[in-house]
Amino acid sequence: MILYHGTNSDTYQLLQRDATGLYHQSARYVYSFLDSELKSGSVK
Questions:
Q1: Which of 9, 10, 11, 17 would you call most buried, defined as having the most Cβ atoms within 10 angstroms of its Cβ?
Q2: How many whole angstroms separate alpha carbon 43 and alpha carbon 36?
């Protein structure tokens, strides 16, 4: 089992900012950002 602590992630930081609007998007859309970040090391 892998636990992911996302507080250091770019995706988490984007979710915290109201101006990005990411919080209001679907879970699948937000997960695509996180998945990309985990694979490449940064949000594209």
A1: 11
A2: 6
